[in-house]
Amino acid sequence: MKLSFLGAAREVTGSSYLVEADGVRFLVDCGMFQGGRETREKNRRAFSFDPRTIDFVILTHAHIDHSGLLPRLVAMGFRGAIHTTRATCDLLAVMLPDSAHIQEKEAEYANLDRFRKEMDRRDKIRGLPPRDMAPLYTVAQAQASLKQLNPVEYDLEIAPHPRVRCTFRDAGHILGSAIVEVWVDTDERRRKIVFSGDLGQPARPLLHDPTPIHAADYLVVESTYANRNHKSMEATQDELVHAINDTIERKGGNVIIPAFAVGRTQDMLYLLADLTRQGRIPKLTVFVDSPMATAATEITYKHMALLDAETHALMGKHGGAAHFRKLSFVEDVEESKSLDRVTGGAVIISASGMCEAGRIKFHLRANLARRESTILITGFQAAGTFGRRLVDGAKRVRLLGEDLPVRADLYTLGGLSAHADRTALLAWLGHFRSTREEHAGVGPAAAQRPFRSKPRKVFVVHGEETVATGFAADLQTQFGWDAMAPLPGQSVILD
Question: Which among 30-44, 112-126, 441-455 has the top mean pLDDT?
Fold first, then answer.
């Protein structure tokens, strides 16, 4: 059996893993790389395999860095099923066409003569080849890929192939996110591979904690925040309260929140409602300016059974609207444009979360140069993204063809991450235990004790290079595990 790391190897985006065994080939995730031009070129490269030879896809969750190349895979000949949770299917019905729409618009924008000439001039100076200005995929191709989705339930075993069984467990990362246990039968033996997907942080709003897994022959684990711990929720709420009150009541400006449409937007609505309920912030005028975030919020409340008890109590079926002065979900483009004429008193939540596309770019253009405004960063910003440049302290930026000074206050709320931090990752990994049968002969009393089982091999992925390699070394030292951070494109034989 062979496992190949096609993406998210010593980097955070582009999750995709190819498993090959006797008579079966399948992918776990098929994600888009996110960042600057280099990552866009990665997305356009031909797959390292013939998509027509892939039997099926297992998808851990809907985030574009895990799902975003599915339309391209289907357009290039993949005809198998895409197995994922029911909530993920609902989210993909919104997210993949939206991603395609962005691809089409960016291609259209880039092909305008004045921009094309300027890009050609810059690329020539840099010795770069001409750019492909066609969209990565179209809305029609995205919609076609949705027909291959197969919704599955948590905790129910499925058999996508005669040689493969798998079970999806709640990962607590975003709605519908999953840890996937995969059993593969070869002519020689059965092997179990666990793919963590993206693990959520325990004790956070909206979702349940990640499901403990107790055994695996091989483990593929994310490491996004494996080198640090998040701020406590208490400290995060204190910082959020200060940012809101200082901006709205003292400075009289706007609070601009770049937020992932799925997960982070709903988290922010919950927190703002809860802080208002506590009397720590005033009732706010909140605009959610992202059609995808609006749809994702509706899907979230459609799947109430997946939300935790606290969310049920606070938000109810009306999404917490009673806790806001005004809660508006902006659909119309003209209404979105009108928000950029609002000089103060508004909280604007908009996508994309890394400020790379979508309506957030226009709201940033309108507010970055204003000292009375605040930019509230609430999620991970990948290297090369516009959001990362802001977090790294850029004093001037170029946005939508304009050079802008950065005068607005910038807050980074590290405690809101949907990813498990170092302590949470180690705690989840600590649940791996050997079975009683594996310790037969040790003695009856010993057989009852929770022994830590060593997976045969652990692969650390979905982390920047120094983080992934460092975490692999830590697992070797602390757990005594055979752990490594695979290189991009590396293949390993699982014996």
Answer: 30-44
Instruction: Kindly report, residue by residue over 314-354, the tens digit of the pLDDT.
Output: 876 566 788 999 999 998 999 999 999 999 999 999 998 89
What φ, ψ does residue 150 adopt, rounded to 5°? Answer: -125, 105
Residue count (the chain): 495
pLDDT (mean) for 256-272: 92
Which DSSP state fits 432?
A: -
- Which of the four CATH numbers 1.20.140.10, 1.10.3860.10, 3.40.50.10890, 3.30.470.20 does domain 233-416 have? 3.40.50.10890
Average pLDDT of span 145-152: 98
Tokens matching residue 383:
């290297």
| Predicted pLDDT at 359 | 93
Q: What is the 3-state secondary structure (H, E, C) of 235-291?
A: HHHHHHHHHHHHHHHHHCCCEEEECCCCCHHHHHHHHHHHHHHCCCCCCCEEEEECH
Per-residue pLDDT, 450 = 44
CB 299 within 8 A of CB 90: yes
- Residue 79's CB is within 10 A of a number of other CB atoms, namely 11
DSSP 370: -
CATH superfamily membership of 2-227+420-493 = Ribonuclease Z/Hydroxyacylglutathione hydrolase-like (3.60.15.10)
pLDDT band at 179 (very low <50, low <70, confident <90, very high): very high
Separation CA 56–CA 80 (nearest Å): 5
User: Tokens standing for 356?
Assistant: 């790379």
Question: Does residue 191 carry a pLDDT above 80?
Answer: yes
Paired tokens of 37? 């031009």
Partnered with residue 85 across adjacent β-strands are 152
Q: How far apart are CA 482 and CA 44, in angstroms?
A: 34
Q: Work out the average pLDDT over 415-422.
A: 90
Q: Are 254 and 345 in contact (CB under 8 A)?
A: yes
The residue among 471, 486, 463 whose CA lies nearest residue 12 is: 463
Let me know: does 363 contact 289? Beta carbons within 8 Å.
yes
Token pair for 108: 């259209």
pLDDT of res. 130 = 63
- State the Cα–Cα distance between residues 260 and 400, nearest whole angstrom: 20
Is the distance from CB of 467 to CB of 229 less than 8 angstroms?
no
Q: Which amino acid is at 200?
A: G
Domain ranges of the chain: 2-227+420-493, 233-416
In the predicted model, what is the mean pLDDT of the chain? 90
Mean pLDDT over 470-490 rounds to 96
> Is there a contact between 210 and 219 (Cβ–Cβ < 8 Å)?
no
